[in-house]
Amino acid sequence: MELFIMKQVLIAVPFPPELLATIRDVSPDIEVEQVSFSDRKWPDGFSTAAEVYYAAGVMPSLELAPNLRWIQMHWAGINSLRDDGYTIPGTGDPQGELPDRVYPSEATRSMLKECDYVVITLPLTSQTHHLINRDMLKEMKPNAYLINIGRGSIIHEADLIHALKKGWIAGAGLDVFEEEPLPADSPLWQMENVILTPHISGFTPHYDERAVDLFGENLRRYLSGKPLLNLVNREREY
């Protein structure tokens, strides 16, 4: 089983519990309870994901790839270089060591043909806007699933809906959309092979606490004249 993570250079790859839950939910051989979206809106009290810890006390991010290899899931990355930005301690892949294979961006089409799950964690830039369109979707396997926890406009939504209806791919798990909240007239609400969540994959019970920690670290760096974390690079557009 191939899992293809689409990321940008020097962007930490997030592996929240939400991602694993989405992979579980879109898989047809795993029975799960689904929220009814018959009224085409998010239900009141839609909660964020709880955090999952291993006995050693680390987030699943750090141990995710080795454990999923145990169930014969392999990792492939695109432009997965060493990350020099901010990551939650004990999580992520700052050395860029987890992918079994790394492909250049120009090999995206050939890579899509191999993967059972394609996970998008990209920022939205002029280069990534509608990166996943009709042509790219046609390259995917008919039993493959597309999961987006990056930005909605990376996927051409109309092309995705067409691909899902035509059976070009098996299904999709979407946490982000071209228009948010997702319009009530979107066909995505009623598609049985689509899992929808309201842009919550990055939120956990400790999100605010970590945001304060990051602010404190940047304040210390600023006062001591050191480079700040998570600065926007206008040339990269993120």
Fold and architecture overview:
The chain has helices at residues 17-26, 60-70, 108-112, 134-139, 157-166, 207-223; strands at residues 2-6, 74-78, 101-103, 117-120, 145-148, 171-174, 194-196. By secondary structure, it is an alpha/beta fold. It has one domain: Rossmann fold. Strands 3-2-1-4-5-6-7 form a seven-stranded parallel beta sheet.
CATH C-level name: Alpha Beta
Q: What percentage of amino acids are in beta strands? A: 5-15%
Query: Which percent bin holds the helix content?
Result: 10-25%
Strand order of the main beta sheet, please? 3-2-1-4-5-6-7
CATH structural fold name? Rossmann fold
Shape: globular
For the termini, the CA-CA separation is 31 Å
Estimated structural class: alpha/beta
Rg measurement, Å: 18 Å
Largest sheet: 7 strands, parallel
- What is the number of independent domains? 1
**Count of runs of 4 or more consecutive helical residues:** 6
The helix/strand series, from N terminus to C terminus, equals EHHEEHEHEHEEH
Q: Low-confidence spans: pLDDT under 50, at least 5 residues? A: 7-13, 50-64
Mean pLDDT: 76
Strand segment tally: 7
Could you state the CATH homologous superfamily?
A: NAD(P)-binding Rossmann-like Domain
Indicate the CATH architecture.
3-Layer(aba) Sandwich
